[in-house]
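Encode chain A's predicted structure.
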Amino acid sequence: MILRKEKEALVKKISRELQDHKTVAIMQISGVPDRLLQQTRNRLRENGAEVIITRKTLLERALGKNFEKLAQYLNGNVALVISDKDPFELNKLVSSNVLQLQAKPGQTAPIDIMVKAGETDIAPGQAVTELKAAGLDVQIQKNKVVIAKDKVVVEAGKKITTNIANALKLLGIKPFRVSTSLSVAYYDNILFTSRALSIDTAYVTNELLKCFAEADALSTSLGIVTSYNVSSFIRQAYAQAITLGKYAKVPEPEILSMLLEEASAEANKLNSIVQGNAGAGGEANNANKQ
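Encoded structure for chain A:
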């Protein structure tokens, strides 16, 4: 039993830790196997986060007024998770811890559970009887048990019988998937529920970038000036002004240098023509003299 002084000291310690981290979240741990919980704690600790598990009353006191919005989510068996990561990154880290579990009699199948045809590592014997009891087409080939045909042994939503549970265990099929996840997170005075935390940030970011690109292209094609395309319009207007200035031979500094270059090129071209004609005339005179 925890003494009153120990409780007070623990509450103060947790309160300080909450203040020292950017994100404070609540993780439901009801029904989470100890092995998975320990795996999650280790993974979080490796990434600079901590899991705090203690009495709910002490957690409520530790949250205090600064995190009172979180208190209403302290339902059932829960733990606090503190981290400097943003809520989405933290939830991704938490939910990445997964454990596959064997089926037990009486459980409801989460999906259609199929046993595929093929050779197994099971030796002939009592196992054959148990597999056949689950309705499987079993054969013995080269002293090994072989499942002859694919078979859905139990459909999604149906109860798993003892025979089917035994067969799945023999075949090493674990149809149940359990993982940890955050039910709510508090970050920068904003409360993120589990629905918000489940958003795929990479997908949303890509979609926003795609929409932005389409909107930018549309506004530019319609001649609508925005802070994002104004530089493009300025470059385009500048190029058009230069072209018009050259055509009208406007003696502006930037245009004048271009006009001089063009004049120089024309002069050189004309000079070449004159020199060529002169050379041709000289050759003609020499020919006449001869």
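Residues 253-289 form the longest helix (37 residues).
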